[in-house]
Give the backbone structure.
Amino acid sequence: LNDITTNVNALYLCSAEPATFTEATSTYALGSKSSPTVGAPASRSPSGRKITVSAITDGSVSANGTASHWALTDSVNSRLYAASSLGATQGVTSPNVFTLTAIDIGYPGP
């Protein structure tokens, strides 16, 4: 989790679940938010650790399509750190703005 907190420098809105950095940032990319706020690792209920990506209010849509997933990436090292589905799909149109609620990423305890 510390690696994500330290190295993530973009969140992408995607049309499908990416499995690679290239899929997240190019193949399925519909928009992005540079430098999303990623919190420090904290306790996860009922056990484990988590990080929270703060809500986004000013993401930039760069292509028309239906967004179904988000992805956290590190462009310096060409890494895809995490990806998951949105609560619901959403049609997006360039050059509009997108918003997302806060996202928790966690690992269960032993």
Observations:
- The CA atoms of residues 22 and 83 lie 13 Å apart.
- The mean pLDDT is 96.
- Helices lie at 2-7, 21-27.
